[in-house]
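Listing 4. Sequential folding, example run.
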Amino acid sequence: MSKTILIVDDSASLRAVVGLALRGVGYQVLEAMDGKDALSKLTGQKVHLIICDVNMPNMDGIAFVKEAKQKAAYKFTPILMLTTESGEAKKREGQAAGARAWMVKPFKPEQLLNAVQKLIMP
């Protein structure tokens, strides 16, 4: 059974690049354009990993992570922040909210896939 990953980013091109890399190795991919959109897609189905940007309109990544972690079904879902933000303060804020990993854009697809494999335990 393939694992499902939710990509949350306001950039359609970034969602496409990440989605292509993930689908290429057999993951199911859901996409959302911001935190609000992502929350509306978390309807109780199993999501094995969330890849989320930090800076987005409507609801940013940190606020989204806090909200997602309030949902019982997603309390333990690993979240990888994929962002241009590299500051320590932002990273700490992300970790405090519940993010498990942090990757700075631009990134190489193989870097991303390695991180995904580590976060999604078989």
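-- end of first protein; second protein begins --
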Amino acid sequence: MAKFSGTRAHVYLAMLPVWIIVLVALVGSTVWTFVISLTNSKLLPIYKFNFFHQYELLLKLPAWQVAVTNLIVFGVLFIAICLVFGFIMAIMMDQRIRGEAFFRTVFLYPYAMSFVVTGLVWQWVLNPGFGIQAAVRGLGFESFTFDWIVQPDRAIYILVLAAVWQGSGLVMAILLAGLRGVDEDLWKATRIDGIAKWRVYTSIVLPIIAPMAATATVLLAVSVVKAYDLVVALTGGGPGNATEVPAKFVMENLFARQNVALANAGAIMMLVAVIAILVPMYYARRYMAQKAEA
């Protein structure tokens, strides 16, 4: 028993630096961010508290409202399309097609790129002067127009297009792992019963791989909340503020506009959004696991 206790003491001692880093770098910085958001800090932090004034101001700002609206549109479309495309690609890969390793690498490769690179690539591709529009017009179709990147009412969908191109491969990899875990006897039984394949996937397989789909959804949702580099690289938040998102709003107020308290209030609101996504999904997965065990 003494030896066991000594071993546990060594384990805790070895983990002590990690816990210190977590408490100071993560918890400490989060608490400090919240404290500064309760002040009237501008260029430098000051500790003259006005409590929730910054949050009231933030919620009334048209720029913040536009950023949140854009984030909702971007997030809903990005997550939904990624899940659908990822599921379709996973089904394709699950058919043991020839060259599966090659196609799996091709589909997953965009996710290995940073959002900055993705944004710059798609900015070049979609530029009306020398991108898709110019290429098609060069083939003789002079009336062809594809200038969504400079259209305020359509630019947000360009962000969705670029993000889906990068993120759907991750969903494919996660769901493919789930599909490969489905018992082969189940497929044999459905073939014997003559059940249509699409019905098997939607009514039987999809509920089985629901935990993998939930994991993919969480990863995509977190990417949505902290979306910044893709926006800056692809559209810069424009045209106008058509593609402004909360993360860009926070960074601009923190560095360019020198409004530290307002930026920190925005950051805390983003943290609340992440918690609002993760906590219900955590309890839903826990409930499903307990129900499966029962």
